[in-house]
Design a protein that fits this description.
Length: about 260
């Protein structure tokens, strides 16, 4: 089984109702970059570590299976964007996923749905990565569209004319090929026109990224997105938490998921 499939299997095991921590740790140990990331995160100031842990099992116990699953999928997303030549999309996916998870909990969604929200936000830039891999000029082209004041609906139609596809279609195709849950695929594919609470949380989480980020495909600001959901009072806390999480997983000059 290749590392990508092992990471997906690890995430699925970690989101079980009663995950087997020993089995989770054993699987983590077979994926070197995830093992390094889990131990590093368990020893980081983000989790308030008082004393260091050195074993994968101790690290899994300290941070919990759900966080291990999140790190596994973050690593899978990093593989994707780096393989396709657009590593700058990775941190934006982390921020979007973390924000979407918190927004979903504020909107009353349960723990399992919140974990799916993280993954949906994390892979929200998969379509952009796919188009950029087919045409290295895609991200620069999209930045030019935004500078011209193009709307979201106009962007999609122009993408189809220029690249024979759009980032929404490309993302849906990729996530379906990985057998992602339908709710994740649908949420990523509908982030320009969300209907359900889950989909709205994903769309709002995507707005937390910097307006000038290459990952940005929304013309709505994060404060405006939070106001639409009647969550304006939580805008700063959600964005701060998302950025803290990104900083914990990608410390300056020493990327956590690059492996050691």
């Amino acid at each position: 089984m290749d590392p990508g499939h092992r990471k997906l299997e690890l995430w699925q095991r970690c989101t079980d109702e009663e995950p087997d921590l020993y089995g989770v740790a054993a699987l983590v140990a077979t994926i070197p970059d995830v093992a390094a990331a889990v131990v590093r995160f368990a020893n980081s100031s983000y989790v308030g570590a008082v004393y260091p842990v050195g074993s994968v099992l101790d690290a899994v116990i300290r941070i919990g299976s759900r966080q291990v699953g999140a790190i596994a999928m973050a690593s899978a997303n990093r593989d994707l964007v780096e393989t396709w030549g657009v590593p700058e999309l990775w941190e934006d996916g982390l921020a979007s996923g973390r924000a979407a998870k918190f927004i979903g909990r504020l909107m009353g969604l349960g723990r399992r749905e919140a974990e799916n929200l993280f993954v949906a936000g994390l892979f929200s830039s998969a379509g952009a990565a796919a188009l950029a891999s087919d045409d290295p000029g895609y991200l620069a082209w999209r930045a030019k569209q935004w500078s011209r004041g193009v709307s979201e609906s106009q962007l999609l139609s122009r993408e189809r004319m220029a690249f024979q596809s759009d980032h929404v279609t490309a993302a849906g195709r990729i996530l379906e090929s990985w057998n992602m849950p339908t709710m994740i695929v649908d949420a990523v594919a509908s982030h320009h026109s969300p209907v359900t609470t889950f989909q709205k949380a994903v769309a709002a989480g995507m707005a937390v990224t910097d307006p000038f980020s290459p990952a940005r495909c929304l013309d709505t600001s994060f404060p405006a997105a939070m106001r639409r959901l009647d969550l304006a009072a939580h805008t700063n806390s959600v964005s701060s938490e998302a950025l803290r999480y990104v900083d914990a997983l990608s410390p300056a000059g020493d990327r956590l998921l690059a492996g050691i």
